[in-house]
Each structure stands twice: as C-alpha cells, then as structure tokens.
Specification:
The complex is a heterodimer of chains A (112) and B (115). With 112 residues, chain A is an all-beta fold. Chain A has no helices and 11 strands. Helices cover 0% and strands 54% of the residues of chain A. Chain A is globular. Chain A starts with a strand and ends with a strand. Chain B is an all-beta fold and 115 residues long. In chain B, strand 6 and strand 7 form a beta hairpin. Classes of the chains: A mainly beta (112), B mainly beta (115).
Chain lengths: 112, 115
Amino acid sequence: QKEVEQDPGPLSVPEGAIVSLNCTYSNSAFQYFMWYRQYSRKGPELLMYTYSSGNKEDGRFTAQVDKSSKYISLFIRDSQPSDSATYLCAMSLTGNNRKLIWGLGTSLAVNP
Amino acid sequence: GAGVSQSPSNKVTEKGKDVELRCDPISGHTALYWYRQRLGQGLEFLIYFQGNSAPDKSGLPSDRFSAERTGESVSTLTIQRTQQEDSAVYLCASSLGRNPLAEQFFGPGTRLTVL
C-alpha cells in the first residue's frame, strides 16, 4: 500500500461544476498537507497549504483535512476551463519540503 | 520577473551515455531542489542546496547521479551511464530563505528519454 493514494482520473466536468479531488494516506502522523496544480509541460505550483486538521479557503478553492479518516480534499467551485490541469497532493510529518510524500496526481478537464 | 528555467526541455539519449541537465533558479533564492517525476510515480526528492551549506544528497538513487551548484546560482544535475529506468521528467525548484517549508517555485522540467 502506498503512503499516499490519489485517483489519477481523468476527471471530466462541465464548466461551472463543483469539483472534488481527494487523497487518502496511511500515516496518521502526517501534519502538513499541500495541493499543487500542474499544467501540461509545466512544473507544479502551490495552490493550498494546511497544517493539521480543518478547512482553508482561498477564492474558489477550499482544502479540507480529516485526520480521523486520513483523507484530504480539494474543492473547486465554479470550475473554469483554465482549471484543467493535474492536481497533486503532498504531505509530510515535518515541515520540510524534502520530506514531502507526493500523490500521483488527478487529471482534471473542465469542458466549456 | 523570470521564473525558474531549465534546459534542455527535452533530451533523448542512448543507454550508457552521460547527460547534464541545467537549472537557473529565481534570482535571490538561496534554496534549490531537484526532483524526479517518473510515469506512474509521485515526485521523488533528489538533492537540496541551501546557500553555501553542504548539500542534502539523501534522495540521490545511485552514485551515477550527482549535482553541483555554484554559489546561489545555476545548478547542474549529471547522470552518468544512463539506464532506461532514468527516463523521467527532472524538475528543479527554488525557494527563498532557510525555511524548510518555504514555497517552492518549479521550473518546467527536462524530459529525459533513455533509449
């Protein structure tokens, strides 16, 4: 079993839909949770960062962490074609980029 | 301002050859990371440079892999005697300051194919 599991998709939704992207993990000690967006032929870019449990909102994006279920989610409201990308989750025990465990990424297509 | 740049964008080589990949970080960023992104696998940390400190090489998969950085500027990742399993996208990232969780800014990557 991988430490971080992420459904690779692809996920295809119509413009304006609410998108839910998820990762599950096995190590209950993870404390730092991140979501990155990666466009085709580009490097990942940080979207959201959450420490420990709870929700965090930034514009159309909401990140949720449920430590009891070892499950994290990224919600995108009013999805746009420009949101079409691969979304990667990453997490670690300590606050150290070098120790991040990355998911495989979920490919999202938002259709106009 | 300019982001992280990497060259070449694509590299095709034959098994057994050496390759050199280049990364130009954002000016002023003291931290520089190299990662590997293989098909069907998550990003793998390779090596980390922070200013003039000794690099963290803990992620290098074998002694065929090495990297250098001159001061706080350009870095090169060298893979000697390439193998087919080295085929991947090699990503470079830089960040500001010594915070180990500071936001990383990634380059577009070099796509390496070993035939």
